[in-house]
Amino acid sequence: MGLSWCFGCPADSPPKKAIIYFLIGAGFGFFFDHSLSTIPVDFYDINDSSKFTPIDVIKYWMYGPVGYLFFYMYDVLKVKPAYSPIYIFAWALLSLGLEWLSFSLGIFHYKHGYRLGYSFPIYLLVNSIWVILYYLVQNANDYPAPDRQSRT
């Protein structure tokens, strides 16, 4: 459902950008979940155990639409760089709320003293990187594609 929304909803966004933004969301979700939920830190379990299962693959793809929505809304709202910290902060709060919901539903199981509030600086970092990536992707569109004809 999230995939269809990403690629079917906004007609003004090129499919290449949708794919890039989706993969950024999924990739960051995968990276940070594995960084924090596996040995040596092992701060939480996702689902019922620490073992990687096929359902985990589906879960990581669910991060994609969230990442896409972050970039899409940033573009639609035409957030000026001076207001980026407010946007980043708001999304960090939203992400914290989604994590709280996941914790309440039993998707996340915190261990070793980890608490919900510890995720907030991580969300601030990720969202800050995402804003930088947004501008990199936007600026990449300003340059013409290289000529692919063979030169003789």
From TrEMBL:
The chain crosses the membrane at residues 18-36, 57-74, 86-108, 120-137. Keywords: Membrane, Transmembrane, Transmembrane helix. This is Uncharacterized protein. It comes from Alicyclobacillus dauci.
